[in-house]
Amino acid sequence: AEEVLWCKELKAALRGQGVPLPDSDFLLAQFAIISKGKTNEAVQRVQKYQSVVVGEYGYSTETAMQQAQGFLNKKWPSLVLPSKFVIDGHPTTCWDYAQFLPSKMQGESEWIALIQEWLLTMDASCADLDEVRAGATFVGLCRGLGWKNFNLEMEKRAAVIYQDSYPLRYHQFYMVDAGPILTAMMNICKVFLKEKLRKRMHTCKQKD
């Protein structure tokens, strides 16, 4: 009942401020639940989502599901590992960050394809309301990670989406077998990362 009230309040606030509604009741509920009933916070996130996710990247879940062609793994084989599973109630996905070679990017059209498919994997991490409530865990394999895998443009584009736009609760980030270079990368990205998110990022060994 509480979440239903949050949704009603959010919908009324969006209409009152002239903000386009999310394209489904499920997506509206995501925003309401992620914001825990803080309507103003939810409105700001919806505004950013409409501006960036929809406006800049033309994203919708329905269209992405119909048009997805495996761009990420065609461009960088084994970047996204076939692994959505649940750990302690949290949907978990795994990426091999060392496979991402940003030097292979060719123009804005490929940036859009990358972001759209990444957003689709985020949709898969909150496929029902139980998963929305629980929050997702992300595991990043970092063995062999180097400066060749780092791209500041990617960090800028991604940060505004995963921190301020997309309605996904991040439970934990695990960086597996990360060397000293990851610390340097994280220091560079501090300007983009909010403290709350940084506290959920952990390094560990694969044996752990």
UniProtKB/TrEMBL annotation:
InterPro entries linked to this entry: CRAL-TRIO_dom, CRAL-TRIO_dom_sf
Q: Where are the transmembrane segments?
A: none
Q: Where is the CRAL-TRIO domain?
A: 89-207
| Gene3D superfamilies documented for this protein | CRAL-TRIO lipid binding domain (3.40.525.10)
Q: What is this protein called?
A: CRAL-TRIO domain-containing protein
Q: What is the lineage of its organism?
A: Eukaryota, Discoba, Euglenozoa, Euglenida, Spirocuta
